[in-house]
Amino acid sequence: MLSDxxxxxxxxxxxxxxxxxxFEWKKCNTTSQCCVxxxxxxxxxxxxxxxxxxxxxxxxxxxxxxxxxxxHLLAVLIQSKAESDRMxxxxxxxxxxxxxxxxxxxxxxxxxxxxxxxxDSIRTxxxxxxxxxxxxxxxxxxxxxxxxxxxR
Length: 152
Prior knowledge:
Layout: H1 2-5, E1 23-27, E2 47-52, E3 63-67, H2 71-79, E4 87-91, E5 111-116, E6 127-130, H3 135-144
Antiparallel strand pairs: 1-2, 2-3, 4-5, 5-6
Helix pairs in contact: 2-3
């Protein structure tokens, strides 16, 4: 696993995404979906970071998962411009996509960062977008400021 290669990336996170509806710490109820970062199956009953298309206009709800232990690694991969079958730069052909970081609309026919569920055993293709210019700020935010949810 990638987090085994980068053990320092398993540090606790510092602050929540309180003002952003696109992110939520949630218990995963299936093993059919995979982590956007490492591609391994999500663990049923474990808390992970759920990323949603909360800012898409007029489209149905879509979401992707990240293992809690992979959040920092995801930031490192985004900052390093690494690409995989789940995370890559692509031209947006739709007109209703919104950036999960800044909440603004993704312009049609421009190249932006696409996160998708290519490794899932679910056939429905899901994708989330981040503006090409927002990706470094997004990576810094989750790398330096995000924290794990508090037990109640």
